[in-house]
């Protein structure tokens, strides 16, 4: 559909008010169900969750902790599908009574097994989704699953360890936050804050390796979880290269439970939030990804080969060969994609190979003058207008727009507590383009405090509480939002946003994290409304539409976070003082399309 066609189908649900209740709140006429939660068995013979007897063996057959990305992969019949879900990280003190980091190898193993991802077969009967406990497709991927390192960095000297002298295989994926889906139906799952698993960089002998790890935030001393007490690979003084084998985008075929996951090194090494695909005009595959750290960068990868819609397997190695670009935003609302290749004048002679450059992606991006952003989280092409939306979740440390960024306007608030969303238009609407235009779509916060309605007012150095909702002028109708994180589009091009950090935002009254929606076209462009509120202490992830947009899934991550066990913040979703991260399905009570 064109923008003109999409505009008339208005969002008609009654927005909900911000909430601090320890429950899921959805609009009138909607209902939710908890589909699957931490510890639920994925297989007919897997044990039920037993909070007092958690074992790695059981956990590796049960749904993992802290669900984040949710991807819906259809099966042949329209009411059956596979859900691919990331398990980002663990907080031991919220998972078990009396947790002491480094005290129990058995519980460290539970935590490692609670990381990674799940492939879960689901089935809908009428309005009810349920998990199919079966080993046809169901799969747990953990912090120990054998994976292949593919692409230019495979076999690089910096990838070699005592356990893997070939530098081509690695155990597990860690801190997988968001992700994406490829046109050929595979799951991209992104390693984000992998640095937090590796200890003792202060004592690393090799100065270059130490500096590279420091740029990615590997700590000088002990880690929070202290897995290094049990496994040498988590101690940089013993295995200095092991962290180089993390921080990648991992591709998994959810339809083949025997598929060995591939770490796709051509897509660069960063604290990847998401990896979302689009096709260039000539059929090459483009993957957008953000590096979620204060003052880090936005990237895109463009494959050399072209997508073949008629031969699924022919696409399986497309992401091993291509060019990685980093974004430079200029103040005239233009920008360029800078290629991170050995022949770039500023990169010549700095790296021994493209593989080494990719292992040190952040260092290469520093050298070419990429624009330092306010924590790039999700990135998503709009299926209706083709523009790419980039969430910058927040940046409390931004003190100067000019000195910190090289582009004052793309991150205009000082500091940026509320976060913002950038709308990027590739030249000629081609995702393979070398340059782009951009504008601010949302400056999140409380529109009742200081609502800007004209783009000309978005000058660099804006106060922290200035807001902008794509020019929408009626503050009394607008919702309040902070810390946008994951995003998704419905088929009319409305942007659905989930948040991670609203409870810390006093400007909007410290509500629980939530799901909001905002049209990107028509008279209601910018008219943001709240659709869902999560329970206390959680962030909301996903969102993911399915079932002809009659269901929207989202992940409720870390309800009651840091409340300990017994939990003092949340008892969601079972009423127990051991709150459990879970995936939720939201539907309209009459079975109709979400939002309209
Ligand atoms: Fe795990 Fe960038 O949020
Ligand atoms: Ca998360
Ligand atoms: Ca996130
Ligand atoms: Ca986040």
Automatic annotation (TrEMBL):
Xref: PANTHER family: DUF839 DOMAIN-CONTAINING PROTEIN (PTHR35399:SF2), SLR8030 PROTEIN (PTHR35399)
Cross-referenced Pfam families: PhoX (PF05787)
SUPFAM superfamilies associated with the record: Calcium-dependent phosphotriesterase (SSF63829)
Domain of life: Bacteria
UniProt-recorded name of the protein: Secreted PhoX family phosphatase
Organism of origin: Methylopila capsulata
InterPro entries cross-referenced by the UniProt entry: PhoX, TAT_signal
């Amino acid at each position: 559909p064109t923008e003109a066609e999409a505009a008339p189908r208005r969002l008609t649900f009654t927005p909900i008010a911000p909430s601090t209740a320890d429950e899921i709140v959805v609009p009138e006429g909607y209902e939710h169900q908890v589909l699957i939660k931490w510890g639920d068995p994925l297989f007919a013979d897997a044990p039920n969750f037993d909070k007092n007897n958690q074992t790695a063996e059981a956990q590796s057959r049960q749904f993992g902790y802290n669900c984040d990305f949710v991807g819906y992969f259809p099966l042949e019949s329209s009411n059956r599908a596979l859900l691919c879900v990331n398990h980002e990280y663990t907080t031991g003190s919220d998972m078990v009574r009396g947790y002491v980091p480094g005290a129990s190898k058995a519980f460290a193993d539970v935590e490692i097994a609670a990381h990674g991802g799940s492939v879960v077969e689901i089935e809908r009967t009428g309005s009810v989704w349920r998990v199919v406990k079966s080993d046809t497709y169901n799969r747990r991927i953990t912090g120990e699953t054998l994976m292949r390192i593919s692409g230019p960095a495979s076999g690089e000297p910096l990838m070699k360890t005592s356990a893997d002298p070939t530098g081509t295989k690695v155990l597990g994926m860690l801190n997988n936050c968001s992700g994406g889906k490829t046109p050929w139906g595979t799951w991209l799952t992104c390693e984000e804050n992998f640095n937090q698993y590796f200890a003792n960089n202060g004592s690393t002998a090799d100065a270059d390796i130490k500096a590279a790890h420091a740029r990615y935030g590997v700590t000088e001393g002990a880690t929070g979880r202290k897995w290094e007490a049990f496994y040498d690979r988590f101690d940089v003084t013993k295995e200095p290269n092991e962290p180089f084998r993390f921080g990648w985008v991992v591709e998994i075929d959810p339809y083949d439970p025997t598929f060995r996951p591939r770490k796709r090194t051509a897509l660069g090494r960063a604290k990847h939030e998401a990896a979302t695909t689009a096709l260039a005009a000539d059929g090459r595959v483009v993957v957008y990804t953000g590096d979620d750290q204060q003052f880090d960068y936005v990237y895109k990868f463009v494959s050399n080969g072209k997508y073949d819609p008629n031969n699924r397997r022919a696409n399986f190695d497309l992401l091993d060969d291509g060019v990685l670009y980093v974004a430079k935003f200029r103040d005239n609302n233009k920008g360029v994609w800078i290629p991170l290749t050995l022949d770039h004048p500023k990169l010549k002679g700095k790296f021994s190979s493209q593989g080494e450059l990719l292992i040190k992606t952040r260092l290469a991006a520093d050298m070419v003058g990429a624009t330092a952003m306010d924590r790039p989280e999700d990135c998503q092409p709009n299926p209706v207008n083709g523009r790419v939306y980039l969430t910058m979740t927040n940046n409390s440390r931004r003190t100067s727009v000019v000195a910190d960024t090289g582009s004052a306007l793309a991150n205009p608030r000082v500091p940026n507590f509320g976060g913002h969303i950038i709308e990027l238009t590739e030249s000629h609407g081609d995702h393979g383009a070398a340059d782009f235009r951009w504008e601010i779509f949302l400056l999140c916060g409380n529109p009742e405090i200081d609502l800007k309605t004209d783009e000309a007012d978005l000058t660099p150095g804006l106060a922290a509480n200035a807001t902008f909702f794509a020019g929408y002028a009626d503050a009394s109708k607008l919702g309040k939002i902070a810390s946008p994180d994951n995003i998704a589009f419905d088929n009319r091009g409305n942007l659905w946003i989930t948040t991670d950090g609203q409870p810390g935002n006093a400007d909007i009254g410290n509500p629980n994290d939530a799901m909001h929606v905002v049209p990107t076209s028509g008279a209601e462009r910018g008219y943001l409304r709240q659709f869902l509120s999560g329970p206390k202490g959680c962030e909301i992830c996903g969102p993911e539409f399915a079932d002809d947009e009659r269901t929207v899934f989202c992940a409720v991550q870390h309800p009651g976070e840091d409340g300990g066990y017994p939990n003092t913040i949340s008892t969601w979703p079972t009423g127990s003082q051991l709150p459990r991260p879970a995936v939720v399905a939201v539907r309209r009570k009459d079975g109709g399309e979400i939002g309209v």
